[in-house]
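User: I'm putting together notes for a lab meeting next week and I want to include a structural view of one of the chains we've been expressing. I don't have a solved structure, so I'd like a prediction I can at least talk through. The sequence is below, exactly as it appears in our construct file.
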Amino acid sequence: MVTILCVTHHGGYVNKFLTMWLWEPLGKLTYGVYLVHPIVIRAYYYQKVQLFHFNVFEQIMVFIAVTILSYTVATILHIVVELPFANLTKLIYPANRGEAMGMGTVPRSSEWWLISA
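Assistant: Thanks for the context. Below is the predicted structure for the 117-residue chain, given as structure tokens.
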């Protein structure tokens, strides 16, 4: 329901909150964090040498630490791996291949009337 309201521009303050610039970098890193966080969690728990005693404060601190460390590692991987490959992909496959080959703009299939028979 929220999605439909936001897409049809009837979301009001919820739409303004969900379209803030703040969410864009976090959205780009989310998949990287998803891939990295099990490694971070295992690295933390495998280095412990004592038995576990459940403590709410300690679990909150571990959650915050794992979240921050996962986003940090995902940011480093984004800068070191994803951005160079994205630039390489842009060099190999230009945005508009027709202009890069000197053919002008290539009409979309929905613009069938522009294609000469």
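A couple of points you could mention at the meeting. The longest helix spans residues 56-92. Residues 24-100 form one domain.

User: Perfect, that's what I needed.
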